[in-house]
Amino acid sequence: MIANSDGDHLAYTTEPALFTTTFRFEWTKAPLSLNYRMHRMAEAKLVKELRTMMHTKARHIPFMTRCEVSLVWYVNDRRRRDDENPITTMKALCDGLVDAEVVEDDTAEYMLKHMPRIVYVNKLTDTAHFEFTVTEIAP
Description:
By secondary structure, the chain is α/β, with parallel strands linked by helices. It has 2 helices and 7 strands. Strands 3, 4, 5, 6 and 7 form a 5-stranded mixed sheet that branches. A two-stranded antiparallel ribbon has the order 1-2.
């Protein structure tokens, strides 16, 4: 415990603060989707671009023993969409975190991945985009 000048006791913790950051991507639709029927070389090129982009953006993130990641797709219309389709985009972004040495691997031992979510947002409030959040969690 620490006491301030008034004699009040202030609690403190010895555990470091957990790190969290959110990356915003101005994509109106997922760059990769389970529904896209691409040639394997075209898909591999796109995966490499996403991994490289995430590697570049994530270089400022400190190393994490474990982390959790989530991908949210904000859309401007209420069309039905399958929540699972952006999983391939999320996988490439997670691989980019490993490439940037933020986390050792993207297996369940090191990374907790949440199912992508699709959220409606009014056009007058915001544009369609993706948000990828990385949060450090206790080992």
